[in-house]
Amino acid sequence: MRISTWLVAAALALTGFASASPAVAADGNPLEKTNGFYADPDSNPATWVRDHPDDSRASPIRTSIATKPGARWFGNWSGDIRAAVDKYTYAADVADKLPLLVAYNVPGRDCGGESTGGAGSPQAYRDWISAFADGIGGKPAIVIIEPDALAQLDCLPGDARQTRVDLLKYAATQFAQKAPNTWAYLDGGNATWIPAATMASRLQSVGVQSIHGFVLNVSNFYTTAESTTYGKAVDAALGYAAPFVVDTSRNGNGHGTPDDQLWCNPPKRKLGASSQLGGGPEMQLWIKVPGDSDGSCGYGSGNPGVPAGTFSPDLAGHLIRGD
């Protein structure tokens, strides 16, 4: 059966969000309209397993990753974004499952790093994110808005910072207005990147109060406990208990020591808790797709390297084993 209202209320109460934020309301709650999280049948690991049935790595990847609920990322590779989002959320709706989507197309994405790219202009982004929200419409969904975009404000020159703030605020408004059964979360960086008070100020500037909350640790490795402590500090600076979720896809061993490469396919990381309610944050979610490379670096280096967003069965194996 679908997740009941009392179970959702109990989970939110345990995380301290039951009555604090006006954004948490029974009406439009996607958890109440679905029966668990959606496992993308066409994710990169699922596709790889289907294409390599005789590979010795296929069975553990199928069991540990490919069949687990997680997010699908949408960007400039997605084609007609309204059609792509509509198709994905419709398939989840038919299955009575809750889909997780990541919007990842802000201009100047990743500040020229391994995941560089994004829409070609501010207006192109407005058109894109508006169509994204249209694609969801009234279907239930969870959306992560632009990982790293707020935390990376400092890498942008002058007026480009305000432009990004304006675009993220526009994105939040689109989901608030067009997707009434969607919980949208603005990205809030990770536990040690930006001081909590600074992140709270940035979240306020892009309209976090108009949507459901914020997300931490996307594509990173900090423990859920560390992320929860940081999230509560951000909430204290905000002045209200905005719900937050944590990416647990690769945080099973924490973020490692300063001697490790901490962000790009580092060694000794491990799968974390699968997508679920509670556990410190409002939800623990697999947002980064385990096995998808961070870039041609760390365990993804070599000749040739593994580009960002490309699935590698070897990277997946390291995460399964934790080595």
Automatic annotation (TrEMBL):
<feature type="active site" description="Proton acceptor">
    <location>
        <position position="294"/>
    </location>
</feature>
<keyword id="KW-0119">Carbohydrate metabolism</keyword>
<feature type="binding site">
    <location>
        <position position="288"/>
    </location>
    <ligand>
        <name>substrate</name>
    </ligand>
</feature>
<keyword id="KW-0326">Glycosidase</keyword>
<keyword id="KW-0624">Polysaccharide degradation</keyword>
<feature type="binding site">
    <location>
        <position position="73"/>
    </location>
    <ligand>
        <name>substrate</name>
    </ligand>
</feature>
<keyword id="KW-0378">Hydrolase</keyword>
<keyword id="KW-0732">Signal</keyword>
<dbReference type="InterPro" id="IPR001524">
    <property type="entry name" value="Glyco_hydro_6_CS"/>
</dbReference>
<keyword id="KW-1015">Disulfide bond</keyword>
<feature type="binding site">
    <location>
        <position position="193"/>
    </location>
    <ligand>
        <name>substrate</name>
    </ligand>
</feature>
<feature type="region of interest" description="Disordered">
    <location>
        <begin position="250"/>
        <end position="277"/>
    </location>
</feature>
<dbReference type="InterPro" id="IPR016288">
    <property type="entry name" value="Beta_cellobiohydrolase"/>
</dbReference>
<feature type="active site" description="Proton donor">
    <location>
        <position position="148"/>
    </location>
</feature>
<keyword id="KW-0136">Cellulose degradation</keyword>
<dbReference type="InterPro" id="IPR036434">
    <property type="entry name" value="Beta_cellobiohydrolase_sf"/>
</dbReference>
<protein>
    <recommendedName>
        <fullName>Glucanase</fullName>
        <ecNumber>3.2.1.-</ecNumber>
    </recommendedName>
</protein>
<feature type="binding site">
    <location>
        <position position="220"/>
    </location>
    <ligand>
        <name>substrate</name>
    </ligand>
</feature>
<feature type="binding site">
    <location>
        <position position="263"/>
    </location>
    <ligand>
        <name>substrate</name>
    </ligand>
</feature>
<dbReference type="GO" id="GO:0030245">
    <property type="term" value="P:cellulose catabolic process"/>
</dbReference>
<dbReference type="Pfam" id="PF01341">
    <property type="entry name" value="Glyco_hydro_6"/>
</dbReference>
<comment type="similarity">
    <text>Belongs to the glycosyl hydrolase family 6.</text>
</comment>
<feature type="signal peptide">
    <location>
        <begin position="1"/>
        <end position="25"/>
    </location>
</feature>
<dbReference type="GO" id="GO:0004553">
    <property type="term" value="F:hydrolase activity, hydrolyzing O-glycosyl compounds"/>
</dbReference>
